Hints:
Elements lengths: L1 H36 L25 H25 L7 H18 L9 H24 L14 H22 L41 H28 L3 H26 L4 H32 L10
Helix pairs in contact: 1-2, 1-4, 1-8, 2-3, 3-4, 4-5, 4-8, 5-6, 5-8, 6-7, 7-8
Main location: membrane
Subcellular location: Membrane
Protein name: COX15/CtaA family protein
Amino acid sequence: MDIVDGRLRQIRLIAQCLTGLTLMVLVVSAFMRLEGAGLGCSDWPACYAQVLSREPQRLHFGLFRVLHRISASISLLLACFLVWRCLRPQPIQPACKQALLLLLLMSLLAILGFWSSDPRLSLVGFLNIMGGLGLVILSWRVVLSTDTFPEMGKPGKTSVILRLGVVSLFLTVMLGAWMGASYAAIACATLPDCNGVWWPSAAGWPALNTWVRLSAAPMPGDLGGVTLHLLHRYVALAAVLLLAVASLQTLRQEETRASASAVLFLLLVVFGLGGLTVSSGLSLWLVVSHGAFTALLLAAVVNLQRQLSLRQRHSGSPALNPDTR
């Protein structure tokens, strides 16, 4: 048992380092992508998305790009070591499964990197953003899987409100990632409406098509860009309300109070940064911060989900439920 506990502690430490590294890679990658797109450039907004009107340029290895390469390389090496520690001498589940998924996603993103230099490939940009968030979440799931809770069958079910909130949050993140990948940032510059429009137009639905090769960014008031912004805002509002209600319901439970408080705090931060981003005219650092705190919110929600699932599973176990004795 001491040997297994020692392995779990080592796996947990490696996974914690990976969570921090993947978050740093995510932030640096977002900064490079947004700066390259011209976000916050001197001749704003005319200078935005000029990279779409020309062939991809040769990469310049500045400080941020070198930091990105080094962090990503160290992350890949750590992920390989993590998988080895999870597998040998005997597989430790569920950490082993999560670590293998993490390494697989890293490998897929490394392959995707061959096409990442062309900003006109919007689907590649979208997959890179979602993949970066996925790395943070999977790393954190490995950390959570090392908790020494007794395994007693399948995980318990969480509340319907929380599950709906998770789905809404995931859709919000997907819409936000697609807005970034399709360079739709300047299509909407007002709050709470979108240049006088309050509801997505049917004419803007083609903007959800991921199989497009970009030649220019949507202009202010563009129906497709406005549709993306409004969908993102309304789904985000639904996610905030659902997750807030689910978190408030669990504040009374001591074992989930810290996780629920973290979710509520990060909801306020992410929602506030989203509003500030638009009202500031799309400040580069506010956009990057919005993405970074979104990753933290996803991790906090995963943590809350797991704790509630374990609590329900344990309370329903004959060994732990006094009513069944």
